Amino acid sequence: MTLIEKARRGKITSEMRGVAKKEQVSLEFLRDNISKGRIVIPKNRYRKIKHICGIGKGLSTKINANIGTSPQKANIKNELKKVKEALKAGADTIMDLSCGGNIPRIRQAILKESAVPLGTVPIYEAIVEGIKKHKELRKIDKEIFFDVIERQAEDGVDFMTIHAGVTRKAISKLRRQGRVTGIVSRGGAFIVEWMMGQKKENPFYTEFDRLLEIARRYDITLSLGDGLRPGSISDATDAAQVQELITLGELAVRARKKGVQVIIEGPGHLPLDHIEANVKLEKKVCKGAPFYVLGPLVTDIAPGHDHLVSAIGGTLAAFHGADFLCFVTPAEHLRLPDLSDIREGVIASRIAAHAADIAKGLKRALRLDREMSTCRYRRDWKGQMRLAIDPQKVKAMRSGEKDVDICTMCGPYCSMKRMEKIFGK
Ligand code: SF4
Predict the structure, then answer these.
(1) Whose CA is nearest to atom 6 of ligand 1?
(2) Does residue 414 line the site of ligand 1, with CB under 6 A?
């Protein structure tokens, strides 16, 4: 039985207990929403995860950090350092997007290192392996796609991005309407090139039941990818993107019926005024499935600062109901992120997630802010470090400060200290 099937039969698992305790929600609330597909707990049945997490309705907003090699930079040790950095900064999940070097070895090493759920995009490895074997992308035998999924499942991957909604119908819509940035999803671009070359429908769509069989066997959560997500503000919320979402909604229903947990992936680049509609549409069309947004990036003109651009979009998306934010680093659109980029990206996303959780009224989030304010009023720097999203930065900034009871911002005119004298602690 898979987790969703257990939930439907009223069973409470150790994973459910762990998540309910962490989130301070009742077991019945959690079980009921897992059974309806509104909450997922990504975990391969054969993997042990130290820090599991629940994603979805009524839970705190989760954030994912992407790591992984490229053909130009493929060093396992470096990827393991990235895992450590992402975990230290507070990532809830990690995705290995490696497409260079020995991909299976890199994944297996990351799986050992990662104390949180691990996701992948299997088509990356399939394409790299397929091109080696068949020379050209368009000639790859689709069996390789399914073989790689099976192998990654055996390794213990907890959730997988599969671009099953990129259909010929959606591509023809994209062609007719035109786009500034075409297809920016790497997986989406791969599958479209394969479909065009073979003149066939997307095999993940036509053989979706086969995919579900594998996912069911390992209890893998499917993250239905948005291969046609907009890659620029000009392309936001167009017909191709919406067509793909409608297909993903149909596939999500089929997955749940087969006992497979599903997340839906979303944009991408969106102006602020499109965000609420995108979240509401996903929730309606996909019957409340957790929404995993890649950003959203609310402007195209801030390369080098896209972690901030995406934190603005992520805050609004999470406030309106998105459940899971994929981080964006300052290196986005420019190069492979390094350790410092990973850290910056995780912190920016965590700020976005927490800001949304406060506005959604999550008790734990509100309590943390109240405690921080109390420490601030008392000039309790240790307390502020303990509660801060980024204690490392607080510590570094305070390290040069000599006076323990005030800071160099206002010095003797410290309003907190003066008010404490009048109003007390
Ligand atoms: S000196 Fe100013 S900025 Fe620093 S703690 Fe006091 S009120 Fe806050």
Answers:
(1) 414
(2) yes
